[in-house]
## 1
Amino acid sequence: MKTAAVLTLVLAAACGGSDEPACDPSGPMCKTLSSYRLFDDIATQTPAEGVVPYALNTPLFSDYTTKDRFVSLPPGESLAWRDDPDSFVAPTGTIVIKTFSYLADRRMPTGDRRLLETRLLIKQDTGWTGASYVYDEGKPSDAILAIAGAPLSASWIHDDGAARTNAYVVPNKNQCKECHNEHDDKLDLLGPKARHLNTGTQLQQLVDLGVVTGAPAAATWPKAVAAYDPGSGTVEQRARAWLDINCAFCHNDRGAARTSGLFLGYQETDALSLGICKPPVAAGRGSGGRAFGIVPGQPDASIMMFRIESTEPDIRMPELGRNLVDAEGASLVRAWIAQLPGSCP
Ligand code: HEC
Ligand code: HEC
């Protein structure tokens, strides 16, 4: 008893002296982000000791927000490599953290930014649970459990120097599932996979740190290229990497869009599954009157471009998680379709 009391005191002191009790991650989601003790400084997103930052070679497009990602593992535990399905297996007590923010000026990546929300996924005995914590504008020191998602009005200076605005939408708890149920309607991690983490020396470092265990020989590690970096691969590889992270968590044979028959994972090799000369399952508004998912050489005749470039809720793809068009991603997929050989019957 006595030891436990002393330990609690020491922990509280080490965590910046927050007077709130520490959150028990095996229970329901706590009210405040600070109660999880994941950060030494939330405002600057400085992680606490043992909370490991990671990056993906291509992020999901989320209306031009900037994202910080971290993983917190229970002491002595690790993410176990798994080939099928390909996201790593996390032990009970793991917390994965993703913070969304707008840079004041996208041309200055280390300049001021406005924190919007921090999403947590927590591995409990029964599986993953998650929620979002929202920041009040001008109060970056803590975030509060989001209940109903009122949009946050945001403005920033874009890459081209023009002023841009967005009514940024924080997803609700049910929407987490619409995307994170990648396979068989079960909540899982989407980013932490070998091919997304295999950028520079990052994956090797995670293995060296013991964060990832059970990895096969490094020479065999899969790697997806960085979609936004022209130097990282061919137009085809980059377009496929973009479709992989933005679409494949629904568009796979065990995902939410399985009945569409459109499978957009990086490993997919079947032309019809990728949408090439594939008639749509439903020829409604979502097809824009176009006959095939992809018409080689003709982006403007391809349903895929119609849906990537739409912002209308019942047409746009992904159907949730964005209001804006990813102009760079869209032009990459355009360039890929434009260079595909052949024609449809
Ligand atoms: C539009 C689809 C979509 C929605 C809605 C969504 N996510 Fe995600 N989330 C993703 C994708 C894709 C990734 C991986 C790519 C990335 O990190 O950029 C991701 C990554 C994450 C991560 C980092 C770990 C991981 O799985 O990669 C956390 C934590 C997270 N999401 C939590 C949530 C929570 C909590 C909600 C609901 C409040 C939510 N997400 C809603 C698509 C979504
Ligand atoms: C949150 C899940 C989800 C995500 C993410 C998503 N889709 Fe979809 N998609 C669906 C569902 C469900 C359907 C079937 C209903 C419909 O057509 O709206 C569909 C249908 C489609 C179709 C019509 C397919 C056919 O042949 O009938 C296209 C094209 C498409 N999606 C493209 C994309 C692209 C490109 C992306 C990524 C940029 C994407 N989708 C991301 C859920 C998703």
## 2
Amino acid sequence: MDLRHAQMIQSRLVPPPQKFTMPDLAVWKITEDSKVRLLCPEPETAALAEAFFRTICSATPTVQTEPKSCNLPEEGYRLDITQNLCTIEANTAQAVRYALHTIRQLMESERGVLTSTRQQVPCVSIEDYPAMSFRGVHLCWFPETPVWEIERQIRLAAYYKFNYIVMESWGVLKLDRHPEFCWDEYAVEKSEFKRLIQLGKDLGIRLVPQLNIFGHATCARVGTGKHLLLDQHPEYAPLFEPDGWTWCVSNPATRQYLQEIVEELLDLYNEPPYFHIGCDEAYTPESCTLCMGSYLEKLASHITFFHDLLAKHHCKTLMWHDMLLAREDPRWEGYIACGSKKDGHDTLHTCLPKSLILCDWQYHYPEKDGKEPHWPTGTYLKELGFPVIVCPWDDPRGGWSLGKFAVREKMDGYLQTVWHHGQRSHIMTAIFVQGAHGAWSPETDTQTISWVSLNHHLRQLSHDMGLKEYRQFGSVQYQVDPAPYQD
Ligand SMILES: [Zn+2]
């Protein structure tokens, strides 16, 4: 067996599996006469496998189930494919889904003919399981994002074995209680969100909401100067610091307003296990006359109020980390820290509940003398007693390195951020392909042929959705930028 051939077949898989072997170049042809042996204690997984082969492979092989558990973690699976039999071992429906995703990524069409919808799979043995249990993608739904695009990103995240999506609406979700908190001409009805939340459930990925309760109060990128609420409704100015970027945490009306939105989101997302309260990049705190003086107590009380409100709903609070670290502190040189020592933000942590889960976003790759970054912010926040989730962005080295760091230092998960780069082809590769590697199997060093793999997978997902238009295929909507665009 030529090692190059095995590597080529293995490189089809995103994320790379933990253990992969391929004895020869034989294939399993998926036909009506094929056999699948499914060993799983959950009997309903047979229907999952049958539906997969029917819809994806246009064939209905016999799926023979045996209610047996195996010595694998909850989301782990074993796949053994020979010319005559495909055997899947797993303990849960989620693990069976992951095995089926792997089969789909390995598949190729019947070879040597003009056209065919039949599929075949190289004979391989795989044992696979995630390196950590929280593997999220943070998705931003901008007014410019079409529904199909966000849906395809949800499908892609599920296909790449992430299990959570933190969904941040940038002014598109039309709420009942506060319909003014939305761009009228880009409003998306709650029923559309409900459809996607259910789709996520069916695909094995849980959608959870985000609402910024401190900085980023504009629900728009700072470089654009837009403000979701004040551009359309200037009378709501008392809810914000005078420049509008940060919520005014001293105004009781702000707390009431945000609480009403939080409660509506909890209901919409079916009492989610997590809720992200943002809190990054609050550039202008304590800038109104009401906020001036004893600000840290006011801010801590504001954050704690929402943490406690969510805890009553059995919901854990996720929060960006950066306002807890002083940017002047030499320990964080090269790393992200946005708080100020002078304003006491570096001691804010002493007044906050330790069950807040801090999302440590580190978007650079601050190597020193060619050495991998050591990510000291995560270690420090963990030592303070908080659970910490590592959050890379668009540097492909960062995702993999942070994934390895998270496993080594026993961090609490991985949250891949996307921001406004969900439609940039080479950056999407860093975000989704390298991100999946960082979250699932960072300790494997398999090379994935990432760009073309991503294109192939996006084509599969566009077909699943029945998409037909030019801009709905590929990793970008247009090959040539059709409009001036803020970079
Ligand atoms: Zn204020």
